[in-house]
Predict the 3D structure of the following.
Amino acid sequence: MGTFCELTINGYDIFEIKNSYQSEVINLIFDESDFLVEQAVGDDYISKKFVSQAGVCKKRLEIYGNSLSKSKADFNLALKKHKDEYENTFDNEKEISFEYYQEIIRASILSGEKKYDECDDYFSTNFEKFIKSNDLGVPYQRLECLLWSIFDSIDKDIEIVYDLTFIIESGWITTQPEREVDFQKIIILTEGKTDTEFIKKGINLFYPYLNSRYHFMDFENSNYESSASRLVQTVKAFVGSGIKNKIVALFDNDTAKIGHSIPPSPD
């Protein structure tokens, strides 16, 4: 016997897995603060799950570079790879497009509960059944692009839930999965303390759900010199060191930076 776990979108389940969960999904779209432990009034049942909204999850993907153009290109490439490898041709080949793909996603999710008899043919020549059978995606599709495509297809306030209650209670995973959420923060570099304070407040005010995804230079507890030239040197040093984190360098709008050149990131 085992316990199954899946990501649920408006009652529609995808990414079903036995006795575990997909940590890469958690890391892409959830934060530690999204993990909720709740007990209904008059009920002994205690749920333990990550909960967010489609719009929030989509924004978290976008700050790492995910977009319509990227997801569309990834879909087309993945579909071509699948067709080339399995020599698979769909019945309605001429109708297939990224827009049609997203229509299938939206209709499936808005229908609510998943009908498993519609999702049992991973090599179906019926494109709609093929998509439903492959967790609303295409083999070879990058996970972040698949997720972005899903969230872009539905209303931003639709609830996204990864319920880990039963695999926690069955002892298959840690009792505190929120502590294992892991993602690379985007480093934001500015010319000085005031710039950083303003940007932090702006993010907290307008995009509080993105706050944990950013890391700022600590001007308070370091001897970091506040200047445009020092910022250029810092960016060059980070790029040269091969650091994997994405870096955003923000300069003041003045003439002091004219003549500076920053090398492009390896990414």
In short: The longest strand covers residues 46-53. The first helix runs from residue 23 to 29.
